[in-house]
Amino acid sequence: MEGKEEDVRLGANRYRERQPIGTAAQTQDTKDYQEPPPAPLFEPGELSSWSFYRAGIAEFVATFLFLYITVLTVMGVVKSPTKCSTVGIQGIAWAFGGMIFALVYCTAGISGGHINPAVTFGLFLARKLSLTRAVFYIIMQCLGAICGAAVVKGFQKGQYERLGGGANTISSGYSKGSGLGAEIVGTFVLVYTVFSATDAKRNARDSHVPILAPLPIGFAVFLVHLATIPLTGTGINPARSLGAALIYNKDQAWDDHWIFWVGPFTGAALAALYHQIVIRAIPFKSK
Questions:
Q1: Which of 256, 234, 278 is nearest to 93 (CA)?
Q2: Would you call 43 helix, strand, or coil by DSSP?
Q3: pLDDT digits (tens, 9 = 90+) for 12-23
Q4: Cβ 221 vs Cβ 103: under 8 Å
Q5: Helix (H), strand (E), coil (C) string for 5-33
Q6: CA–CA separation, 173 vs 131, rounded Å?
Q7: Cα 181 to Cα 249: distance, rounded to the nearest angstrom
Q8: Among candidate residues 257, 104, 268, 98, the one with its CA nearest the CA of residue 186
Q9: Hey, how many other C-beta atoms are within 10 angstroms of the C-beta on 18?
Q10: What burial letters (b/e) apply to 245-280, b meaning 16+ CB within 10 Å?
């Protein structure tokens, strides 16, 4: 009985935390994970590898499906005279977030599941992929988005043009600065979540992280859409904005189109800097 009482009295204090957390873990000379080496700026050898082109095809198909489902959802909401008979803004947000969750899960093992030039740009700045691959991904993502929107228009051309084609515009009552700020912050949330969900240290420490990574990424997209649909229709993805604008091809779709490139790329760059310099910074060791 005395032995059992001793166990109860000591409780969790009997076993001390052996693995430091936070910045303390970064001061260890030995690591419990293998940090991937920085990707080279140019990787000519990639151009002769089938896996390189397979990854690009995966990005194309994923972005194609993303635009097809989400543009149809937006059109369905706009078409109804009363939002009570449709999925509404919440449904649009779920469509975008749910598709990102599903598509990242499907393509993460092939291309990394970017499906967004802003994500690709942020990961490139963090040296997670080469410039060669980043440019190729962005081209394939834009082509996939254009084709996805084109298929929607091909199925129902009249309604597509009448309902706006899911193109991003600054809503009346909001300034260009407000729209730009919403795109910057919204993309920051998304790209910061991508960095956190795919962090090599967390993957090594928590075996469930790679499996669950698509979930927080999709949920971040959902939340950002809830917040910014009333302002800009939510871009945070230049390929999505380009595909819808190019196929819709009306003046209102191009008037503020620059916002949906400058905003996401700025937000992605800020997220990359924050994650690399602040979150993953190795503190100075005292001598």
A1: 234
A2: coil
A3: 444 443 444 444
A4: no
A5: HHHHHHHHHHCCCCCCCHHHHHHCCCCCC
A6: 39
A7: 25
A8: 268
A9: 5
A10: bbbbeeeebeeebebbbebbbbbbbbbbeebeeeeb
Rounded CA gap, 27 and 282, in Å? 7
∠ Cα 244 249 254 (to 5°): 85
> For 45, which DSSP code?
G
pLDDT tens sequence across 190-226: 999 999 988 876 655 555 545 688 999 999 999 999 9
Tokens of 252: 């209102």
What is the DSSP code string of 177-202?
HHHHHHHHHHHHHHHHHHHHHT-HHH
Between CA 148 and CA 166 the distance in angstroms is: 12
Structure tokens at 271: 């997220």
**Which of 95, 270, 280, 262 has the alpha carbon at shortest distance from 198?**
280
